């Protein structure tokens, strides 16, 4: 008998624009309303940090956990040695097992800040698929598992087909081609040993997930299910990936809380309401009220609300306070009103260049600050009126810094455009 008061998690995910694809929806809906289940999501260890593209999966696991379901996170110590070819135009870099083990511990800490690992029966757990793959004999694996996979069928999966079409010269290695078998076996192993019946992943994982469902059916004659979520994309429509430039990492040493806060603060109006639904648990009434109100004050904007919400969840209350303070110093305070302590805070938390008291041209400092790749490019930036010193526009290519430009004898605030800052510290 279906419990009428049970929250329809599938409808909630769809309403919040999270749900992308689902297998056997009616059957899964019935199971979720009658019992708590074990579900899993896998993350390969291809960097020392997760990024915001992973947050939708983690938040979705959190939704399930809050309803009593048990989330299991598989960190791919084994599959990371192979590399998932899904929708990648070139082969992933292969890393050593020692590096992957270090990344395993770092990423585990990030996940533990989001999911609950101490709430009884549905406490989250993290496991490493290397723990079962390193014991497997290759001949045994090919005989027992490989026989269930049809190469013709695998070749027709979009993740493989796109790689073959877009990269005819190098194609795809057998190592990467076998990834589909390994992820499918993960699902089967978890189904047998942890009673996992649902796998969650990004929309690029659909082929791997359905292969796992088919394998469970063939080996154990059991029903399993899959859900994929919408991918998070940048303004130009491209995916936020770990190998792309301007990736927003969850590790504060790779993306500072200030930059993290600024990312959400600068979400365009065309995406902000979509992101509020996807990333927060705010009620639709609150989000709809923002749509009705046109507020020109940045601190009262939906972007500011999202930036506060996300920064607090990922980096904590103190980091949020610091990020807001830095934002206030850079964007709302007059340069004349900045204290020495304000500059000291900026020095620790934004890009900076430390120089001796020799004379430096603006061109050279633009290169040192990485605002320009060469003196020629630096000159073009100055000529285009894009450069500011202590919030005053500089248009002279021959500009030379003097004592006048050093606040409290040590600090000069350099800006490119409206939002790119670098603090010069004169030692």
Write the layout of secondary structure elements.
Layout: H1 9-15, E1 19-22, H2 25-34, E2 38-44, H3 55-66, E3 70-76, H4 97-112, E4 125-128, H5 130-133, H6 138-144, H7 151-155, H8 158-166, H9 174-177, H10 179-194, E5 196-202, H11 206-220, E6 225-229, H12 257-265, H13 269-279, H14 284-292, H15 302-315, H16 317-331, H17 340-349, E7 352-355, H18 362-368, H19 375-383, E8 387-389, E9 392-393, E10 411-416, E11 420-426
Parallel strand pairs: 2-3, 2-5, 3-4, 5-6, 7-11
Antiparallel strand pairs: 1-6, 8-9, 8-10, 10-11
Helix pairs in contact: 10-11, 12-15, 12-16, 13-15, 15-16, 18-19
Task: Tell me what you see in this structure.
By secondary structure, the protein is α/β, with parallel strands linked by helices. The protein is built from 19 helices and 11 strands. The model is unreliable at 1-5 (pLDDT under 50). The relative contact order is 0.09. It has helices at 9-15, 25-34, 55-66, 97-112, 130-133, 138-144, 151-155, 158-166, 174-177, 179-194, 206-220, 257-265, 269-279, 284-292, 302-315, 317-331, 340-349, 362-368, 375-383; strands at residues 19-22, 38-44, 70-76, 125-128, 196-202, 225-229, 352-355, 387-389, 392-393, 411-416, 420-426. The chain folds into 3 domains: 9-229, HUPs (Rossmann fold), CATH 3.40.50.620; 256-332, Tyrosyl-Transfer RNA Synthetase, CATH 1.10.240.10; 336-427, Structural Genomics Hypothetical 15.5 Kd Protein In mrcA-pckA Intergenic Region, Chain A (Roll), CATH 3.10.290. The strands form 2 sheets. Strands 1-6-5-2-3-4 form a 6-stranded mixed beta sheet, sandwiched between helices. Helix 10 (179-194) crosses helix 11 (206-220).
């Amino acid at each position: 008998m279906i419990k009428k008061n049970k929250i329809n998690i599938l409808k909630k995910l769809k309403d919040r624009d999270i749900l992308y694809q689902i297998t056997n929806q009616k059957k899964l809906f019935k199971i979720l309303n009658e019992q708590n289940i074990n579900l899993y999501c896998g993350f390969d260890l291809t960097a020392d940090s997760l990024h915001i593209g992973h947050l939708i999966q983690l938040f979705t696991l959190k939704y399930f956990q809050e309803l009593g379901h048990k989330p299991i996170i598989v960190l791919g110590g084994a599959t990371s040695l192979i590399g998932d070819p899904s929708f990648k135009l070139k082969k992933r870099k292969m890393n050593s097992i020692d590096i992957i083990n270090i990344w395993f511990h770092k990423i585990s800490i990030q996940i533990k800040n989001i999911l609950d690992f101490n709430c009884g029966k549905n406490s989250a757990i993290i496991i490493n698929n290397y723990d079962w793959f390193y014991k497997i004999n290759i001949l045994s694996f090919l005989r027992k598992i490989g026989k269930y996979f049809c190469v013709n069928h695998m070749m027709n999966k979009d993740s493989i087909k796109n790689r073959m079409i877009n990269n005819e010269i190098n194609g795809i290695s057998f190592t990467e081609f076998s990834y589909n078998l390994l992820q499918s076996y993960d699902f089967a192993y978890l189904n047998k040993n942890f009673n996992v019946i649902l796998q969650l992943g990004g929309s690029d994982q659909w082929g791997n997930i359905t292969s796992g469902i088919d394998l469970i059916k063939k080996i154990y004659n059991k029903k399993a299910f899959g859900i994929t979520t919408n991918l998070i994309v940048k303004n130009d429509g491209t995916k936020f990936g770990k190998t792309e430039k301007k990736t927003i990492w969850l590790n504060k040493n790779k993306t500072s809380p200030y930059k993290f806060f600024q990312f959400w603060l600068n979400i365009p109006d065309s995406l902000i309401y979509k992101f509020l639904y996807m990333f927060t648990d705010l009620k639709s009434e609150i989000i709809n009220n923002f749509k009705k109100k046109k507020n020109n004050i940045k601190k009262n904007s939906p972007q500011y609300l999202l930036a506060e919400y996300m920064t607090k969840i990922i980096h904590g209350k103190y980091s949020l306070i610091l990020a807001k303070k830095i934002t206030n110093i850079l964007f709302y305070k007059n340069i004349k009103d900045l204290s020495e302590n304000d500059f000291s805070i900026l020095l620790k938390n934004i890009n900076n260049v430390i120089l001796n008291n020799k004379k430096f041209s603006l061109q050279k400092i633009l290169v040192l600050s990485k605002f320009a790749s060469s003196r020629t490019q630096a000159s073009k930036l100055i000529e285009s009126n894009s450069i500011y010193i202590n919030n005053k526009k500089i248009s002279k290519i021959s500009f030379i810094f003097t004592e006048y430009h050093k606040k409290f004898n040590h600090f000069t605030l350099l800006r490119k455009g409206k939002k790119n800052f670098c603090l010069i510290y004169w030692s």
